Amino acid sequence: QTVVTQEPSFSVSPGGTVTLTCGLSSGSVSTSYYPSWYQQTPGQAPRTLIYSTNTRSSGVPDRFSGSIFGNKAALTITGAQADDESTYYCVLYMGSGIWVFGGGTKLTVL
Amino acid sequence: QVQVQESGPGLVKPSETLSLTCTVSGVSISSSSSYWAWFRQPPGKGLEWIGSIYYSGSTYYNPSLNSRVSISVDTSKNQFSLKVDSVTAADTAVFYCARHWTMASSTRFESWGQGTLVTVSS
Which residues of A touch B96 (CB under 8 A)? Predict the structure, then answer.
């Protein structure tokens, strides 16, 4: 079974830029996987950030952007803020109605 | 504004069936652009998609749970439900429901419920 891979953790300085990635244990991520990104803080429900590779969900600041970066999907945060400290999950469409989440990246802003 | 709310027992005994309901408000569950999805998150772990259902009853399930899971829809109540059979302690998790919006080549999970913790224990 294909595994969706994410960096377990990442650190960024306030005001800095960070790119989180979402890959496959076998193969390359393309727009056909409809990558989407979700932000979650402890005890809270996920928040939808980016869908269909690069479309920001309503109300999401434009410092969040999505793309395909090499053979992976990517979430870039430009001008990181303290309240961006969260866990970020990507999810990919595997076909036949099946969706698979990555393990999540815990982002620290310090 | 679309809202969803999970409900159901917070404690289930091992080997029994876990049953949860998601009540949808702000949109008809029969909306052509909407599937409806269940997710779970074991304590301290990541999110897992369990499955999705369309108002017609068409379903898709996570292959790792397929044999134990069923999702159904009740359009008259604007609700959809989840059943997980033969639960063990490994099924202890926060369960979320959400709208799975799909239109043309665009799709996203949105309008997440607050989540409900289900503990499997005797």
Answer: 45-46
Q: Does B66 touch chain A (CB under 8 A)?
A: no
Predicted confidence at residue B66, as pLDDT, reads 75
Give bridge partners of residue B23 from the DSSP assignment. B5, B79
Residue type, B13: K
Does residue B15 sit in helix, strand or coil? coil
According to DSSP, the residues that pair with B45 across neighbouring strands are: none
Which residue in the set A51, A55, A91 is minimally distant from B49, CB to CB? A91
CB B102 within 8 Å of CB B87? no
- In the DSSP assignment, the letter for residue A57 is P
Q: Which tens digits make up the pLDDT trace of B63-110? A: 999 789 999 999 999 999 999 999 999 999 999 999 999 887 788 999
* Chain A residue with Cα closest to B48: A101
Tell whether A102 is within 8 A of chain B (Cβ): yes
Smallest Cβ distance to A55: which of B96, B106, B115? B106
d(CA A89, CA A81): 18
Residue among A109, A71, A102 nearest A6 (CA): A102
